[in-house]
UniProtKB/TrEMBL annotation:
Classification of source organism: Eukaryota, Metazoa, Ecdysozoa, Arthropoda, Chelicerata
Domain EB: 128-160
Domain of life: Eukaryota
Iron in keyword set: no
Secretion signal span: 1-26
Pfam family, one: EB
The protein's name in its UniProt record: EB domain-containing protein
Keywords, alphabetical: Membrane, Signal, Transmembrane, Transmembrane helix
Transmembrane segments: 230-254
Organism (species): Parasteatoda tepidariorum (Common house spider)
């Protein structure tokens, strides 16, 4: 039987063999893809039309490099040389310089060593020009949905050029104008609709904002606006209450003043009835105090003057003349008519004229 120590040694030996086999397999796979020690860089090149690109093929022996490409590459040249690697090994290289690339140059590029049967493969991808770049046909434009207009790649009508963060280059997308319009990228909503909107198949407000009448408003702004609105409403309510109180106070004051004026007028219009004796006088009931003694004496004197004053002289003379004429007519004999042109009648007529 094997001891524990021997069993451990056997396991370690088996593991070493397995790792060695795996390393050998990986080296063989790399040799198949890159031709053993033949290496080409870059393995894949993505460029825009009009750019220059260089592929470098490196080998450890000074042998003949053979380049092959199936694409329509026309403007190119080769540069060969050698350099000292970091491990003090001499490496030989051949460079393929391609100038003014076009979309038609995209394809596979092969570097091989005829003597060693080594082979390395790379890919050239010419993607097209961005918006604003020169073009001949719309196929030269790489920007999504862009077209060649007047020799330049531009977005078509009713489309807008957007820079998409996830892609790293510009795209053309249809114009959108409001929330809940269909979209593909956040940039569409942020640039065309609202800076606080995002794309969820349609443009909607971001989680930190709310839709207020078709506009995305920050939640913090909504809270602030509500507090301001409540403050304004409260201020308006207090102002209205103050105005109402002042108006009611003025109305009550004016009403009381009008009532007092009407009552004073009524009191002034009421006077005490005159007395039946010669010294009657009236007393103002609305006065705050009774008439003075002097006022009463003045009233009495006025009444006495009215009684003591004699009648008008002309009236008295007229009456006397009339009475004298009647007396003479009565004392005259029966059937005798006194003349009318007597001095008495003339005097009477004269008096009448004067009157």
């Amino acid at each position: 039987m094997l001891s524990t120590e021997n069993a451990t040694k056997c396991c370690i030996f088996i593991l070493i063999c397995v790792f060695a086999s795996a390393h050998s397999y990986a080296v063989n796979i790399r040799d198949v893809n890159q031709g053993g020690n033949l290496v080409m860089e870059p393995e894949e090149a993505i460029v825009y039309p009009g750019r220059n690109i260089t592929f470098t093929c490196t080998y450890h022996s000074n042998l003949t490099f053979i380049w092959d490409f199936t694409s329509m590459i026309q403007n190119y040249n080769f540069v060969e040389g050698a350099y000292l690697s970091s491990k003090d090994h001499v490496l030989y290289y051949s460079k393929l310089n391609i100038y003014s690339t076009t979309r038609l140059m995209s394809g596979e590029i092969t570097c091989s060593i005829a003597e060693d049967k080594a082979k390395a493969v790379a890919f050239l991808i010419v993607n097209g020009v961005r918006n604003g770049g020169s073009c001949q046909t719309s196929s030269d434009c790489v920007t999504d949905k862009s077209v060649c207009q007047n020799g330049l790649c531009e977005c078509p009508l009713n489309h807008v050029r957007l820079h998409v963060k996830d892609r790293g280059y510009d795209i053309c997308r249809e114009m959108i104008y409001s929330l809940y319009d269909p979209c593909e990228y956040d940039e569409q909503c942020a640039h065309l609709v609202d800076s606080r909107s995002v794309c969820k198949s349609v443009c909607v407000c971001a989680p930190w904002a709310r839709d207020i009448r078709g506009r995305c408003v920050l939640i913090s702004e909504i809270a602030y606006n509500r507090s301001q609105e409540m403050y304004r409403v409260g201020l308006i309510a207090v102002t209205c209450i103050i105005i109402l109180i002042v108006a009611v106070s003025l109305w009550v004051t004016l009403r009381k003043s009008c009532q007092d004026q009407n009552l004073d007028g009524q009191r002034r219009s009421i006077t005490q009835a005159d007395f039946d004796f010669p010294t009657r006088f009236s007393i103002d009931l609305t006065s705050d105090k009774p008439p003075s003694y002097d006022d009463i004496l003045v009233k009495e004197e006025e009444e006495e003057n009215k009684i003591a004053n004699p009648p008008n002289f002309k009236d008295a003379l007229k009456h006397c003349m009339t009475a004298k004429r009647l007396l003479r007519q009565v004392s005259a004999p029966a059937g005798v008519v006194l003349p009318t042109d007597s001095p008495i009648l003339k005097t009477e007529s004269k008096i009448n004229k004067e009157v």
